[in-house]
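Why this split exists: single-chain examples teach little about how molecules sit against one another. For that reason, every record in the complexes split bundles all components of an assembly together and asks for one structure covering all of them. Below is a record exactly as it appears in the raw files.
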Amino acid sequence: MDTGTETRLDAPTAIKDAKKRYRAGVLKYRQMGYWEPDYVPKATDTVCLFRITPQEGVDPVEAAAAVAGESSTATWTVVWTDRLTACDSYRAKAFKVEPVPNNPGQYFAWVAYDIILFEEGSIANMTASLIGNVFSFKPLKAARLEDIQIPVAYVKTFKGPPTGLIVERERLDKFGRPLLGATTKPKLGLSGRNYGRVIYEGLKGGLDFMKDDENINSQPFMHWRDRFLYVMDAVNKASAATGEVKGSYLNVTAGTMEDMYERAEFAKELGSVIVMIDLIVGWTCIQSMSNWARRNDMILHLHRAGHGTYTRQKSHGVSFRVIAKWLRLAGVDHMHAGTAVGKLEGDPLTVQGYYNVCRDSFTKQDLPRGVYFDQDWCDLKKVMPVASGGIHAGQMHQLLDLFGDDVCLQFGGGTIGHPGGIQAGAVANRVALEAMVKARNEGLDIRTQGPEILRKAARFCSPLQQALDTWGEITFNYTPTDASDYVPTAAVAH
Amino acid sequence: MMTNPTGRITQGQFSFLPELSDAEITLQIEYGLKKGYAWSIEYTDDPHPRNTYWEMFGMPMFDLRDAAGVLMELNNCRKSFPQHYMRLVAFDSTRNIESIAMSFIVNRPAHEPGFALERQESRGRTLRYSVRSYVSDRPEGERANGKA
């Protein structure tokens, strides 16, 4: 029985005869020119890798061609108006289909897009094309945009991060170690004055940054202006106490663009070095805020709120590595990218893949890390990845080993929940971090000796000892939902 | 001082740890050299957090690839400016970095008076903040003398 799942030699190919091709009626996408198996992508093409699960009886090549068609120029029936365009060059071309290892029914499909299809400097436009239509397509049970290769010609139309990792460090005058932060907890409910207390304690204790949570905007329990006023008093007081540049990410996310600009302006007026926005404000807003940040010498932190709804399941959605690439182009300075060892989803290798997308000058193909393409960033500034969610001082060696120095480690509960108080929590984290960096530089193997290094440091730092006593045993060992197809899946173990 | 019980400014990579010994400093220098960084020594009497340009003690040592040599220069600096803040700075000239890779304090004055926070009222409840270092109340020649 023909199940239609094998590509046969006599399978329909592209119809080259124009009269036949444009006769009214329905053709298969692979007949309409969306499947070109010998196509070699041009240097100016965007190449997408989709993970598709065709419905029963749907030929995977036809499904790939349909993805190419519905994310570029096609519709479900032949239209004569195609002939008013240079349609052959505008059509996206699916050029390779391969079964996904160990996943029957799932296929990788490579699709190339001509550069003319995309508006310069507009992530909104690129996403509208690539993910705007195709994912609802009935013949596909599921589809995921797994990875994307963006041509240098298109990268160069974006300004990228307003500040960038290097200039951020220069502004903070902090080098050679990860940055430390904490999100104010509880997530919701504190009033402005009480909120400022948490900020002061955390920063004074030794953190570099504090952070608004993603859902702190302007609610009845705390108006945004009150938060900003009290937070900046705390930030400046802590800065004077320590002699360090400090900051707190003031969340300017709001219901309208105009409100966001108003909040950002107030943050600037109060002298904040940094503001934050949530991913759910949308691509257009992110680019606008990026431009604003550049004009106003502001570091722009982005919380990836909401991404988990579409990034987490391997079969359907958009991989976070694609989101990360778009965010770097759209222009954010900080991006939450995963902890691997904390409370939120993230297989260690996959998370390292996201970090590389943020920080590389040239990201190389790396299949175990889920990076399917080389990506030349064309000197676009680097994004500081942020690790936030259920991490504590007892994991400092793992975090430093996995992610290196160019990361912002955020310990919300891990600072505020410290039995000795918030300052003690901050001291514990800072001492743990500095001790681990020092030990790594001295040549110690922190992966195996990390716990001993922490214990030694705790001997002169009782807050660290308390932190280890309180949380030392806490781990979050669950099987990741989104690990690479090219390595065995394992939870993180000590 | 209530706001800073240890009375130390906490700039640099290792300010929360006990002062590094010369042996420990040497290990850090070696790490930087292995990574291909260029070490330099800077000193200042005004550690204001926005004081970017500390005085250079000689040029960045691009061609000095020996930790003992760097340490020797550091000790020369300490002899000349014993009551100044001093830091070792490692520079990475890789494309798309071209900035500092390591920076830590290796000398402090005997007395660290710290900073005042100045608040200037503005419109509404807005305040304009300014951090002022106490040492800069004195002229340059009278700052780094080890006296309170």
